[in-house]
Design brief:
Length: 358
């Protein structure tokens, strides 16, 4: 009897355990099902400040990207108001997140950890835009020129400073910057970098020797990179100039035997750039340009041919090397003849000596 009564007791115990589990599940404690592949869904609140007017601001669009080996977009929204909450954002405490806010067609980037995003209201700053270039200057330009056969490869690396007060983003409706370029420039690729990856810049031709760049210049220093190619021709010209002042700039040409002529251009030898000719350029006023003339330095053929010619000259000329074997042959034949005659003479002396003794 006692043994048969154990079954109801065990059944009641199991039912009680199930009831407790159901109560816990309905009490609001997060379960494993609330977690996504990126983390736990959390509300995130943003406050937008217009840093130009120091008043509440707004954004046209806001995205959140979770950074792994590459950005993974997890939020893309068009909020309203200066303060707003995104109700369900999958976050990890130690995860890295990039928030991008667009205002007046200009993106602004911010970096946060997941822990920072759920702890408090996030403040993001945006700026009014202007097309006034009075406070914009090219503070540094490195122009790298490489001759590759019948093509000239150009690479412009710019540092552009925006010193507006109060702080504004400079952005024209068509082209913010215009630059002088050689005619026939093609394969153009232009980017600026403030966010996690280079951002493409739209470009447009403004005649045969000017290029427009539709780039937003935020307050402070902006980095721009532009590359392109142009057909090589002996004595071709290469202009440098912008619609804003250029304070300092340098030119690197490769191969280093290329000759460069330009008003105010000074040689700048440096061991840091082996194989390149380096030059310093003068300051250039806004709207003006410096024009340089490029030539092959009186050398024919490719740089490799030039190197090989130098190696040959370091020992002897090619004509000397070719005649050396012939000269050796003229000397070797009489020497062999003398040795043969000497050997014959010794044999004759030996035979004559034997006959005398006999």
């Amino acid at each position: 009897m006692h043994g048969r009564c154990q079954i109801p007791v065990v059944a009641r115990t199991i039912l009680a355990a199930l009831a407790v589990a159901a109560t816990i599940g309905s009490s609001g404690i997060p379960s494993a099902h609330a977690q996504t592949r990126d983390g736990f869904a959390q509300p995130v609140t943003f406050k937008v400040v217009n840093a130009t007017t120091r008043s509440p601001g707004a954004v046209d669009r806001l995205t959140i990207d979770y950074l792994t080996a590459r950005p993974n977009n997890i939020v893309d929204t068009r909020p309203s108001g200066s303060t707003f909450t995104i109700g369900s954002v999958p976050l990890r405490d130690a995860g890295q997140y990039i928030v991008t806010a667009w205002w007046q067609n200009v993106p602004y980037w911010f970096s946060f950890t997941g822990r920072e995003m759920v702890a408090d209201t996030l403040t993001i700053h945006v700026f009014d835009t202007s097309d006034d270039l009075q406070a914009v200057t090219v503070t540094g330009l490195n122009l790298v020129v490489q001759r590759q056969g019948e093509t000239l490869k150009l690479e412009y690396m710019l540092q552009v400073d925006n010193a507006t007060s109060p702080q504004r983003t400079i952005m024209a409706s068509d082209h913010t910057l215009t630059m002088a370029v050689p005619g026939g420039l093609q394969d153009i690729d232009a980017t600026y970098r403030r966010g996690p990856d280079p951002t493409p810049i739209a470009t447009g031709s403004l005649g045969t020797d000017r290029l427009g760049l539709s780039v937003p210049l935020t307050w402070g220093q902006n980095t721009i990179r532009l590359t392109g190619r142009v057909p090589w021709s002996e004595g071709m010209t290469l202009p440098v100039g912008f619609n804003v002042p250029v304070r300092t700039w340098s030119l690197l040409v490769s191969p280093d035997w290329l000759e460069v002529q330009g008003l105010g251009l000074e040689p700048d030898p440096s061991s840091e750039f082996q194989g390149y000719g380096r030059f310093r350029g003068p300051e250039i006023e806004a709207g003006r340009r410096v024009t340089m003339k490029l030539s092959g330095g009186g050398l024919q053929g490719t740089p490799e041919a030039h190197v090989f010619a130098t190696a040959g000259d370091s020992t002897a000329s090619g004509s000397d090397e070719e005649t050396a074997p012939d000269q050796g042959g003229d000397i070797g034949f009489p020497l062999r003849l003398v040795l043969v005659l000497a050997l014959v003479g010794l044999i004759l002396l030996f035979v004559a000596n034997r006959r005398t003794r006999s």
